[in-house]
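Sequence in, structure out.
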Amino acid sequence: MSLGACGDAGDTAGTGSDVDVTPLPIVARSDWDGAQQTCEGMMSGAVDYGVADGEPDLLVALGPRGVVCVDTFLVFENELGPDSLVMHRLWLRYMATLQELGPELATDQRDASLRD
């Protein structure tokens, strides 16, 4: 598998071989703590994503001016579309991040998504 740039969060073109599997950035609590605590209807301004520092179950949508919103993986999946290329890329990068934080976190998240 070749590694390529993730591109804009709204990008839906590309092939599976262009998927960026680098871990997501960890977003400092001071940056996400005061942000909108739901991402429902808020994802249009996102250009990248991260994981909330201290709360690995929370994803952070990042816009050009900083944090857009914070929410669970399930909400991100609902907002971005479970079958979209953006969601596929995000899932791979999220799993890579959780593997770095602790393999048990990735296993727990993978198991939870299979139950949903």
